[in-house]
Amino acid sequence: MTEANKVPVLTIDGPSGSGKGTVGQLLAQRLGWHFLDSGALYRALGVAADRAQVDLGNKAALARLAMDMDIRFTLGTDGDCVDVMLNGEEVGNVLRTEESGRRASILAAIPDVRRALLQKQHSFRQLPGLVADGRDMGSTVFPDALLKIYLTASPEVRAARRYKQLKEKGFDVNLHRLLDEIRERDARDAEREASPLKPAHDACILDTSQLDISGVVEHVQGLLQQRRLR
Ligand code: C5P
Questions:
Q1: CATH number at residue 93
Q2: 3 state SS of 34
Q3: The ligand 1 atom nearest the CA atom of 136
Q4: Which of 104, 105, 111, 184 could form a cystine bridge with 43, CB 3.0-4.6 A?
Q5: Would you say the CB of residue 216 lies under 6 angstroms from ligand 1?
Q6: What is the pTM of this model?
Q7: 142 close to ligand 1 (CB < 6 Angstrom)
Q8: What is the DSSP track for 174-213?
């Protein structure tokens, strides 16, 4: 076992709006562990491509950009905000738009881009532990994670959550359009060949449609406690 493999990892995967970001951040804060928002890496690459005027069809240039980008996260003290610095510039708000999610899901289907981001994701694995949120954290990036969670919820519930979140952040959004965008992004993420969106074979699947965030956090923390006592 290498030094990095001794660091415990909790993976939380699932589609957009399943609650994985909020649940992951709260758990990271409670546990005092590091937090990886892997979706933000893909979103940030979309922004970096835009800034560098690299076309989303230019796979080789995108993979190079992915390798070179300098991205850092800082977890806010209230647990519900993460500052994201891309090449020295704070880009948190730019990353949260639906357009940035759409661009991210296009780049995320490129195998060389995924490979280029793999090492960056592994570098987040540091003591005392890591909570990693995304689509393929349990299936591909951290296959030896201590506990793998896959959160899901109906597209309607997820669209309503995203609507509320974006409204609260002051974005002008339309619920029907959000639902269409979520369905379109789910289909692209699930149908791609490279690391498609699906639960790892050993993941615990939790449908959060009828659950509130604190219920999910308590439940996952209980599961983690059991694993650590094994
Ligand atoms: O989680 P988030 O909505 O920020 O992710 C944006 C997009 O990035 C997803 O729709 C997906 O295409 C891609 N992604 C991915 N693998 C991850 C995290 C995100 O392919 N681990």
A1: 3.40.50.300
A2: strand
A3: 21
A4: 104
A5: no
A6: 0.90
A7: no
A8: -HHHHHHHHHHHHHHHHH-SSS-S---TTPEEEE-TT--H
